[in-house]
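Practice problem 4.
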């Protein structure tokens, strides 16, 4: 009986992470948000997040295309705040 509870618990954990991963992929489709990925083993150029001022490595940072230039962010939250600020400034 105990082994059935253990197996059921493991299966529930696996299903939880599969659903969580699928939902994250589903909600991010169609957005212009990607992470810049570099393949070099060298240190990355540092860029400053315009929202919070944090310096972050350019490789792996969130970014947004704006007027043909990339603006880099430390997190999805900072990117969303920047977009809100842009849309309110344009209105």
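Answer key:
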């Amino acid at each position: 009986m105990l082994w059935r509870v253990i197996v059921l618990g493991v299966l529930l954990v696996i299903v939880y992470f599969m659903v969580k991963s699928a939902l994250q992929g589903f909600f991010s489709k169609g957005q212009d948000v990607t992470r810049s990925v570099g393949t070099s083993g060298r240190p990355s150029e540092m860029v400053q997040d315009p929202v919070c001022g944090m310096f972050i490595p350019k490789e792996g940072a969130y970014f947004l295309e704006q007027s043909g230039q990339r603006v880099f962010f430390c997190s999805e939250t900072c990117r969303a705040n920047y977009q809100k600020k842009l849309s309110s400034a344009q209105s």
